[in-house]
Design goal:
The chain has 435 residues and is an alpha/beta fold. 29% of the residues lie in helices and 16% in strands. It has helices at 2-32, 97-100, 119-124, 135-138, 196-199, 259-266, 286-300, 318-324, 338-341, 356-367, 370-374, 391-399, 402-405, 412-417, 424-432, and strands spanning 38-40, 44-46, 55-56, 91-93, 109-113, 146-149, 160-163, 174-176, 180-184, 205-208, 215-216, 221-224, 244-249, 272-275, 301-307, 329-333, 348-349, 383-386.
Length: 435
């Protein structure tokens, strides 16, 4: 009896030992195959110590877009840029740059030109198809800690991405939270830019013609001569040889600025010739054709209509600076501050006159007084024009300003469009009585 009980106890111990071993093995197996912590918020963030899966744009990580009034000014490098739209195309990654680009120099600001464009367009936007870190030294920039690249495969190295399109850009498929987007545009706002309303939450830094943009971008301007001319500037084409009064080249009819209305009224009081689609006379097409006409104009005409197509804050184009390079007195219509944007006493601003009739009276006065007329060319002794801004230094200097480099996204659309007021001519009509 005792032997049977001993055998039963031994058998029971063996069974318990086998069960215990099996349970430990299963527990260890489950622990070894345990999935990383998974958090799902209308999308999925999958994390472990070495890998971060892409996170869709719309997630609770972006909630700081609407909770930004807490008075906390501390910068959060892992914060998702404000108001990123959920278009299903761009995924936001929170992986630090030190992980995705461990060899990158943290003191260097890497700028990736994302938009595809040709060499000619690079010149148009102020770059000379030169890339790398040393280019900023060659251009004698104040700040040289920038690196310009044009290789999309190096997206993970870029602190800043530049977009040049005036249409919705082709956005990258991923975006790191420490990256900022720069939008560059030369043209004034119009209906064709309505796409910005939806995509402005992506854009951190503005770069355009306005003086209050984050980075001011301009191709034309003037500065003092290093060595002024020894003698006052003497006009090559005397006033007495110019038999015609006013000329302009306009091919965009019905512009927002209502310049056509002003030209029509001005024509009632002084002779005005309009070349292009909006007039009755033609110039050869292309840059060479324009130059041929301008060469002829300065010999025949006294004044040139440098009329912008819109009244937008700080918006002034080559229409002005091209005219200034000839012996023609520009008559300007626009919302620029011409006392700042043009050489001293070099232009005639229509806003200084109550009506086109009053302007015509002043133009006739100048036409009879050669010294007064030639005084509009006196600036040429002291100043010189330029037409190719060096964007390398402009960009690098701006990105070394913390207020620019760390700017949050949002507000671009309303800021840009609010700068235009195309009812100026209508108010001039009411005030001057030429309705």
């Amino acid at each position: 009896m005792f032997r049977h009980r001993a055998r039963f106890s031994l058998l029971l111990c063996l069974v318990l030992a086998i069960l215990l071993t099996a349970n430990q093995t299963r527990s260890g197996s489950e622990k070894g195959s345990e999935r990383p912590v998974k958090e799902t918020i209308k999308g999925e963030i999958v994390r472990n110590e070495t890998h971060v899966e892409p996170v869709p744009v719309e997630s609770s990580l972006a909630k700081n877009a609407d909770d930004d009034d807490d008075g906390d000014d501390d910068d959060d490098d892992d914060a998702v840029p404000r108001h990123l739209p959920d278009d299903g195309d761009t995924k936001i990654l929170t992986t630090p740059k030190s992980v995705v680009a461990p060899d990158a120099d943290p003191s260097v600001k890497t700028i990736l030109i994302w938009t595809s464009f040709d060499r000619a367009k690079m010149w148009w936007y102020g770059f000379r198809h030169e890339f790398g870190h040393e280019v900023f030294r060659r251009h004698n920039c104040t700040h040289t800690n920038c690196n310009l690249i044009y290789d999309r495969s190096k997206l993970n190295e870029a602190d800043f991405l530049m977009f040049y399109h005036e249409d919705p850009p082709e956005w990258p498929k991923i975006r790191y939270t420490w990256q900022s987007y720069i939008h560059i545009i030369k043209e004034r706002p119009g209906p064709w830019h309505r796409w910005l309303k939806d995509y402005e939450p992506r854009i951190n830094i503005t770069m355009n013609y306005r003086y209050d943009s984050d980075i001011r971008f301009f191709n034309n301007g003037f500065h003092k001569r290093r060595n002024p001319l020894r003698n006052p500037y003497t006009a090559k084409w005397s006033l007495s040889r110019k038999g015609k009064s006013v000329v302009g080249m306009i091919s965009h009819c019905g512009a927002d600025s209502k310049r056509d209305d002003y030209v029509a009224e001005l024509s009632k009081h002084i002779d005005v010739d309009i070349y292009g689609s909006c007039g009755t006379m033609e110039c050869p097409r292309g840059r060479d054709g324009t130059k041929q006409c301008m060469d002829r104009f300065q010999k025949q005409y006294k004044f040139y209509l440098s009329f912008e197509n819109a009244f937008c804050k700080d918006y002034v184009t080559e229409k002005l600076y091209r005219t200034l390079s000839y012996e023609l007195v520009p008559i300007v219509l626009g919302a620029a501050n011409y006392s700042r944007d043009a050489p001293p006493h070099s232009v005639i601003d229509v806003r200084d006159f109550d009506s086109p009739k009053a302007l015509a009276g002043y133009l006739k006065h100048l036409s009879r007084n050669e010294d007064e007329y030639n005084s509009y060319f006196a600036w040429k002794q002291w100043y010189v024009l330029f037409n190719d801004q060096d964007c390398y230094c402009t960009v690098c200097d701006a990105l070394n300003e913390p207020a620019v480099a760390n700017k949050k996204a949002g507000g671009y659309y309303d800021w840009w469009f609010s700068g235009c007021d195309n009812d100026v001519i209508d108010r001039m009509k009411e005030k001057g009585g030429w309705l």
